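Action item from last week, closing it out:
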Amino acid sequence: MTSTDGPVAESEDPAPRPTRRRFSPEYKLRMVAEYDAAPAGEKGAILRR
């Protein structure tokens, strides 16, 4: 036996899931190279982009 405390709207569709970003291998290599070349104070800014 199951009980619910309120009405259940099964006919409503949930919001569609957003598509995930896809990064090419070239982009990833470029970002790693840029990170490695950056001075210590700028590495965090690169990661936040």
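Closing note: The first helix runs from residue 25 to 37.
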